[in-house]
Write a structure and sequence with these properties.
The chain has about 325 residues and is α/β, with parallel strands linked by helices. It has one domain (about 25-320): D-Maltodextrin-Binding Protein, domain 2 (3-Layer(aba) Sandwich), CATH 3.40.190.170. The protein contains 13 helices and nine strands. It has helices spanning about 1-20, 40-55, 70-80, 90-95, 110-125, 170-180, 195-200, 210-215, 240-245, 250-285, 295-300, 305-310, 315-320, and strands at about 25-30, 60-65, 85, 135-150, 165-170, 185, 205-210, 225-240, 285-290. Strands 1, 2, 3, 4, 5, 6, 7, 8 and 9 form a nine-stranded mixed β-sheet that branches. It is globular. The protein starts with a helix and ends with a helix.
């Protein structure tokens, strides 16, 4: 009896310890990427840092691969209270705060360092009004430089895009950019894209190397052209309803974790990009061409800037361009 009592007491103590030291807050973070995608890995790094910095008091559960819906669903979920956190593109975020899409103008960044500096300064400032709409931006993770793929012909100059049916994000900038190039833009949820290309519903799409590789798009696309027409940030968002419930010490820990994870994830992107292209070449399933006339693409897509200048804010465009 004494032995049984001791065992029972030990079990109770373990249970009590589990309850006492369990998470005070459990949050859901959804995104659309494959778990191997760099920003999906960045999400994992973020949750680990949050756990460490809060002593396990805040637990973040990740739901990748569109398990909680597409990007629009996820952002809406933040305002409805069905999703606590998400990683999403600035392009789709632009449907909730128009100015956020300014970063998706074609060729607005000179290079990657320029993109990072602009996003971490001008970008965070532009996105502050989202807080009044129930959404807080914690950091600007990276999706990457976007390139075009298709099944009909290599794309080396703007004329090569003409007549192609290209899947784009649900964002007017991308729709108008493709129209100017003579393509037929087809807005479509990311989760539907692989099948759409496989079945010939669309000829192609545009995405960063990470998505092209980890989502296996190269298996159903003959040609990958390194057009580098836009750069995609992937803001880490939290619902203000959740944020305001957190004690200040946890808010600070989460913000620190987001900043650290963002830097870590950007470094990972830089390390992996060339590896993705090498693996695609080794597969022999898709031809990669980098002999793209980028100057011609810049000239051809420049009218998009004027088309959206009023909506996005001329001052915002100039602030980004002038970042040194």
């Amino acid at each position: 009896m004494k032995r049984i009592s001791v065992v029972c007491l030990a079990a109770l103590l373990v249970f009590a310890g589990t309850v006492a030291f369990g998470a005070e807050f459990t949050l859901k973070l959804g995104h659309i990427a494959d778990p191997q995608n760099p920003y999906a890995q960045g999400a994992v790094k973020f949750t680990e840092l949050v756990k460490d910095k809060t002593g396990g008091a805040v637990e973040i559960q990740i739901f990748p691969s569109s398990q909680l819906g597409n990007q629009r669903d996820l952002i809406e979920g933040l305002t409805f209270g069905t999703v606590d956190m998400t990683l999403t593109s600035t392009a789709v975020l632009g449907n909730f705060l128009t100015e956020a899409a300014v970063f998706d103008l074609p060729f607005i960044f000179r290079d990657i360092p320029h993109a990072y500096k602009a996003l971490d300064t001008v970008g965070m400032e532009i996105c502050k009004p989202l807080e009044k709409r129930g959404i807080k931006v914690l950091a600007m993770f990276e999706n990457g430089v976007r390139h075009m793929t298709n099944n009909r012909n290599p794309i080396r100059k703007p004329e090569d895009v003409k007549g192609l049916k290209i899947r784009v994000m649900e964002q007017p900038i991308y729709i108008e950019m493709m129209k100017i190039l003579g393509a037929s833009p087809t807005p479509m949820a990311f989760g539907e894209l692989f099948t759409a290309m496989q079945q010939g519903v669309v000829d192609g799409q545009e995405n960063p190397a990470a998505h092209i590789y980890t989502s296996r798009f190269f298996e159903v696309q003959k040609y990958i052209s390194l057009t580098a027409h836009t750069y995609s940030a992937e803001p880490l968002l939290v619902a203000m309803g959740i944020w305001n419930k957190l004690p200040e010490k946890y808010q600070q820990a989460i913000q620190e974790a987001a900043t650290e994870a963002c830097s870590w994830q950007r470094d990972l992107c830089r390390q992996l990009e060339n590896q993705y292209w090498d693996k695609i070449r080794e597969s022999g399933k898709s031809e990669i061409n980098d002999d793209v006339d980028k100057a011609a693409f810049m000239d051809a897509t420049k009218p998009v800037w004027a088309m959206f200048e009023e909506k996005l804010g001329k001052q915002n465009i100039e602030a980004i361009v002038n970042v040194q």
